[in-house]
Amino acid sequence: MIDMIKLREVMVENPDLDLPEGLFYQSLNSNGLKTIRELATFRFTCRKCEDAPCIAVCPAEALEKDQDGIITRYTNLCVSCKSCVTICPFGTMMTDFFVHHRNRDLLYNLNDDGETQKFIDACPEGTVYLTDQDESPEKNIYRLNDRILIREYLYNTEMK
Ligand code: SF4
Ligand code: SF4
User: Fold this and answer.
1) Which of 141, 160, 111 is nearest to 2 (CA)?
2) Is residue 78 within 6 Å of ligand 1 at its C-beta?
3) Is 0.90 surpassed by the pTM of this model?
4) Which pLDDT tens digit goes with each residue over 7-22?
5) CA atoms within 13 Å, Cβ hemisphere of 63
6) Interval between CA 92 and ligand 1 midpoint (Å)
7) What residue ranges define each of the domains in the chain, with the CATH number in brackets?
């Protein structure tokens, strides 16, 4: 479980915190590696604006919306200008998504149980943990994939 609500609270209190990132290395493709936090943000936190200003402002055509309104960032195109962060009226994205060279010591492969445990240990207390819960919209818990649950407030009520 990754508790995006709690993570945001922690980040507001500690704005310079270098957060550990979990990802699935086998997902490497033309879209580039995506951290779980970025995937969860576009899937659940983003309000899926009809005329998405983030897409319009991007100088590199690095953002695209799929048929479900979910934004994808092509990391190979993104030039880290952060214009999308500035223009988003809802403060959806966090600027630390857009660093080109992440500290590899903070990247954890969530396909591997040992790395997953290290990721949990490295994250701020209570923000990431193992659970046998299932998706539970009444508790703001949603499934990102077969290994990851996300706790987040949804704006789009159609997803509840
Ligand atoms: S940070 Fe990347 S995705 Fe965002 S506007 Fe700039 S180039 Fe586009
Ligand atoms: S502007 Fe913000 S809320 Fe709107 S689609 Fe882009 S990221 Fe989502």
Assistant:
1) 141
2) yes
3) no
4) 999 988 998 888 899 9
5) 26
6) 13
7) 2-159 (3.30.70.20)
